[in-house]
Amino acid sequence: MLFWHGDQSRYGFADESDGPYVLDFLAQTGPQCADIFTELQRLTGGVAPMPQQSEAARLFDEISRRFKEHQFKDPFHESLLLYEFLTSLWRDATRIPAERDPVAFASEYIERRYHLPITMDEVAQAAGISREHLTRRLTRKWGQSPGKRIQELRLKAGKDLVCNTTAPIEAICQHCGYLDPDAFARAFSRKFKISPSRMRQQFLEHASISKNNRIVL
């Protein structure tokens, strides 16, 4: 899972930066940790946001700094901070600020959970407004129904995995929110006018040709 915070760029690396890219990461094990992580992943998908002023961002920076400077008091102190970090991420993922725009919240909710079997009743309940009202507002926002939006997100993710991984098509369809491989293949073919397996074959052939035609100076 990825956590991002800091500047406004997608990968935490500003466009004007000319220095090396530095990646900070945390590794943690333990049964309770696994339970929290599994629930967090269910709520947020593969990317969990950390707003700059959030408790999670503060803890992430503190843990990273203490590790680099060898400033943990003992293993219990280290474990405590790590569990506080995971818990704060979980709180952020489940909290709905009163002042938050319910449509913006619902849009983000769908963007993070399209790979899950979500329903508009679930999204509306999480956003705090009726399903009918939310559906109308999201349709105006996107120019398409929420159902079509979810399908587009799933198929785009499926296309990326088909072209850039060697994962079986059956595994890809489940990762993208489709329970039935045949339903995924039919939707994929309607959207891209080609089957998933044939698209992968064409992508590999094109990559091979490009590699063979590369000029080395």
TrEMBL record:
Annotated Pfam families: HTH_18 (PF12833)
Alphabetized UniProt keyword annotations: DNA-binding, Transcription, Transcription regulation
GO function terms (MF aspect): DNA-binding transcription factor activity; sequence-specific DNA binding
Residue span, HTH araC/xylS-type domain: 104-202
Signal peptide: none
The protein's name in its UniProt record: HTH araC/xylS-type domain-containing protein
